[in-house]
């Protein structure tokens, strides 16, 4: 059985590799067009920082630029905002360009923000790229790519300062476009046009562009919806919503009109042969995932009854550590973390709300929900939208007030 499996794997990989050049070349060209206007947002706050993504929409005089990101990326008390770009130098090689930023406008209803960038590092004079917004919503099934800086990748790897500004790219298709009133930071039931897609994003991608195959921005990535079965849906504010926001703030920008007919997949994926190969790859991937689940378990610990199954490690404002064990029953109901003595995990931190956040175990996956705390919550440095469940892992670093917590599974 094992030799047969290995032969099948080798055959599929060989066929799959033969399909990669066209796809890789398409994505490479797309990255070359998008990256010069793609920046990583670093928001300095009292006692910490937050991270996000954004993109340039207009060049101004005196080496200044207009820049769009999510409102929740630049929410709360802010000491400074900086944006970094990794650019191709005029004489070759890569150049890191840093800009100071100020917020010109924010819409909590649309979860959009407009910043003005001014060059902070005069060593680099390389001009930034400008991304153009699509004038119409992306159609169902349209190929798209998500660009950004997922913080989960930084937490996983020890990387240099320059690598912090090297973007990540994923691709997929538009599942649907729709109007929703359950959007924005203030949950005000304001109607917003959004795009649901399957180009994977994580914390840190907030504010990053969702682009079509022609490089036009069709949306601003904003959130991840976690279904009860663990399936994720990725959401973005549509480009028409961004244009409406900018126009209301006095900035009317030219939009790209007409459809984009390019495809992010190579021609080898068209037809029955491509479907057979793709099916084989998916079957092998599913088998590998199943083996990992059986061997490693992840958060799949069941309810656990009254037996402790997770440990919450807290590092408080004074640098001291504390450990709290949570059982399956409390996690199934929702374990509150906060300053209250009645919280499942109680913190002695003046910046933490009495009921700051909730941890909940649902169908083997662990979720965090900020309970509309006063000073907010971050996951790997990225702000969490109040009231929205965010999936976390044992590698997640959760920031609240002046404290940090990590969660691990008990054997």
Automatic annotation (TrEMBL):
UniProt keyword list: Hydrolase, Membrane, Protease, Signal, Transmembrane, Transmembrane helix
Spans through the membrane: 274-294
Signal peptide: 1-24
Gene Ontology molecular functions: serine-type endopeptidase activity
The keyword Magnesium is assigned to this record: no
UniProt name for this protein: FHA domain-containing protein
Residue intervals of the FHA domain: 335-384
GO BP, one annotated term: proteolysis
